[in-house]
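Quick one:
INPUT:
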């Protein structure tokens, strides 16, 4: 059996040339640039990010990064989605990872009056994760939640759910339903009945608010779960298929390879031999 961390926090600084090719993490990622300047692409959006900026990347987004100005200093935090949801339960806060309307920006400038307090909390979070003293995960949950409370107070308009309205709130509830039930058969027809909403309206709004179609979002949740099982358990591919919500192993392998460009077993071997990139 393989174990993994629910959260990892790193402080890093570099004066040497640094460029990371396209990659992704099966976790939510938070980067805070303390010094320097980087150029990054997240899916199809390009950013030039300087000091005092946050970058938020979810577990389904491919990204790359190149440092433009040195020294480059940053905190970066990787949080498993389940751990994040247990820590930060307000859907408004978690919308920076869950919702991708067309105008969403992955970068947030930390220049409000609470700037220094936010950075101090990142330092506390890093210290707790690094030291791993008694109840450090409980402390990390509290600090992580406080960071998002402070970010919201500083920049409420940045959070996508803040401006969604009534029909948008239904989509948020449907996302939550998918995340909690992806292992079971789920269809757009079933969801439209459960939430008393027109399925064509749901389909349109879902893409607008999340950045993915209903089917894409469901499949990506299942693939995300499959990757965790492949990496952190010894379950065979058939069991991984069943436990991640797929009902046909050949279909599972075909979908996995289409999305990841390698088979499930190749992914397991590649990941366990340390051939993974970090941000």
């Amino acid at each position: 059996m393989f174990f993994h961390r629910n959260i990892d926090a790193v402080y890093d600084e570099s004066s040497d040339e640094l460029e990371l090719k396209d990659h992704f993490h099966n976790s939510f990622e938070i980067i805070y640039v303390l010094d320097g300047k980087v150029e990054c692409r997240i899916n199809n959006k390009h950013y030039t990010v300087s000091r005092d900026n946050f970058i938020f990347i979810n577990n389904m987004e491919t990204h790359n990064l190149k440092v433009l100005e040195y020294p480059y200093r940053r905190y970066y935090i990787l949080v498993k989605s389940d751990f994040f949801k247990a820590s930060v339960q307000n859907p408004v806060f978690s919308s920076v990872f869950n919702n991708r309307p067309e105008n969403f920006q992955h970068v947030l400038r930390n220049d409000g009056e609470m700037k220094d307090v936010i950075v101090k909390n990142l330092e506390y979070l890093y210290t707790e994760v690094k030291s791993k003293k008694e109840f450090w995960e409980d402390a990390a949950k509290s600090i992580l939640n406080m960071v998002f409370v402070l970010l919201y107070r500083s920049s409420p308009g940045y959070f996508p759910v803040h401006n969604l309205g009534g029909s948008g709130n239904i989509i948020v509830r449907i996302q939550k339903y998918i995340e909690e039930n992806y292992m079971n058969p789920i269809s757009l027809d079933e969801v439209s009945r459960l939430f008393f909403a027109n399925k064509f309206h749901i389909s349109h709004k879902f893409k607008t608010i999340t950045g993915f179609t209903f089917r894409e979002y469901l499949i990506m949740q299942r693939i995300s779960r499959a990757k965790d099982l492949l990496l952190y358990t010894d379950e065979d591919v058939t069991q991984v298929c069943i436990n991640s919500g797929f009902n046909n192993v050949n279909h599972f392998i075909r979908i996995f390879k289409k999305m990841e460009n390698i088979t499930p077993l190749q992914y397991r071997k590649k990941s366990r031999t340390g051939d993974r990139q970090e941000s």
